[in-house]
């Protein structure tokens, strides 16, 4: 069971990291794609807030969705293990990204 929890944690953390990479890449390349003169519209902050709310909900469901379901099913130990492993794997991914930023860029 512990291997299944760790596998699920790695999948959840990697899916979250991939989502963050996609959104960050979009935000980085959007001015080049849409043109720099599109920033004077009220739609820009609206889209940013919509993206923020969607991202919070999406990544929240990736990280906390399965643990909450397991907790509600009475699997409190497995739920806690999954959330700790998921956050641990995500922390390792974050540290690797910071190291890449420091040493590569």
Radius of gyration equals 17 Å
Summed up, the helix count is 3
Count of distinct structural domains: 1
For the biggest sheet, the summary is:
none
Assign the structural class, choosing from mainly alpha, mainly beta, alpha/beta, alpha+beta, or little secondary structure: mainly alpha
Question: In sequence order, what are the helices and strands, one letter per element?
Answer: HHH
Low-confidence stretches: none
Mean pLDDT over the full residue set:
92
Q: Shape from CA axes?
A: flat
Strand percentage: under 5%
* Total beta strands: 0
The amount of helix comes to over 70%
Distance between the termini: 40 Å
């Amino acid at each position: 069971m512990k291997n299944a929890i760790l596998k699920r944690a790695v999948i959840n953390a990697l899916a979250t990291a991939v989502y963050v990479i996609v959104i960050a890449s979009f935000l980085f390349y959007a001015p080049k794609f849409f043109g720099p003169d599109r920033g004077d519209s009220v739609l820009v902050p609206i889209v940013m807030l919509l993206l923020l709310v969607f991202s919070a909900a999406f990544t929240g469901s990736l990280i906390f969705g399965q643990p909450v379901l397991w907790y509600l099913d009475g699997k409190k130990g497995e739920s806690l293990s999954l959330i700790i492993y998921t956050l641990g794997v995500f922390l390792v991914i974050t540290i690797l990204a910071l190291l890449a930023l420091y040493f590569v860029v």
